[in-house]
Amino acid sequence: MSFLITGGAGYIGAHVVRAMTEAGERAVVLDDLSTGDAARVPHDVPLVRGSVLDRALVDRTIAEHGVTGVVHLAAKKQVGESVERPLHYYRENVHGLTVLLEAVAAAGVKNFVFSSSAAVYGMPDVDLVTEDTPCVPMSPYGETKLTGEWLVRATGRAHGIATACLRYFNVAGAATPELADTGVFNLIPMVFEKLTAGEPPRIFGDDYPTPDGTCIRDYIHVEDLADAHLAAARRLAEEDWTGDLTVNIGRGEGVSVREMTALIAEITGYTDLVPQVTPRRPGDPARVVAAAALIAKELGWTAHHDVRDMIRSAWDGWCLRHPAARRP
User: What CA–CA distance (Å, rounded) separates 130 from 134?
Assistant: First the structure.
């Protein structure tokens, strides 16, 4: 197999490239480097700089590298930004996917893995979110991911392409410090930023209907997530596999914001800064935890890393970029 990995120079994409190449699969990366970093791509993996919106470039890349499967991760992914720039998000995430699928269908590529998100569910009022939980996205970002799933499945049915849509929850950690997330948009790096600036981390609301009053989320190590992409890509490539697959990627375990901030303080050594409770953020559901049984059944995949692994590996990556942050 030879896989085209769009967005392969990004945080998650680079981990997918690493997992697939270490497993012996051939890969080529297509990335416009708007948020990705070319240094994340191994030297022996071809990197094509450009956008999935460029049909001619996508056609050439598929042909020149003998692509037989696609793992599509390239997308804009900030919820707040999507509210401010919905047209930009629909162009990049939906129109870009449309162009890519047109090229895939024209080239006769028969396997397509789509990077989706738990954002498709919106604010589910359930203990465990299953793949059958109604999808009611609450942001343009979530809408583009749900629309993307529809596009992928419809194209697969029409053109005989085996497809998988992977809905992942809260991604954290790093396989190596060099591959760590450089953004400060998720809880763990947001807490790192506050602690290392000598400021108390913030907890947005402590009056939710949860045991400690703070929101509960399901966290997945990015290395486990990458392994799930590999498992999905290989499953689609099997001769007896046809149709589509939609699965959650999570651990099926919830961790509250208060528990997470306490663990971060313990692991980093910044135990002297007490979290500050601030008002709730609009749209934050009390609990979002994945049901992870279907992916185990269909792909034989389960997560191997716990929350402490995620925090430690993310902290190593943070300290690589901020050496003064590490306490003796």
Answer: 9
Please confirm, yes or no, whether 11 is among the known catalytic residues: no
243: pLDDT strictly greater than 90: no
pTM over 0.85: yes
Question: Shortest CA distance to 274 belongs to which of 186, 194, 205, 215?
Answer: 194
Q: Give the domain range for residue 227.
A: 2-170+220-249
195 and 86 in a common domain: no
- List the catalytic residue out of 11, 121, 141, 208: 141
- Residue 287 neighbours by CB distance under 10 Å: 20
pLDDT 10s digits, 226-240:
999 999 999 999 877
Q: How far apart are CA 210 and CA 213, in angstroms?
A: 5
Q: Which region holds residue 296: left if phi is over 0, alpha if psi is between -120 and 50, else beta?
A: alpha
130 with 16, same domain: the answer is: yes
pLDDT over 90 (residue 2):
yes
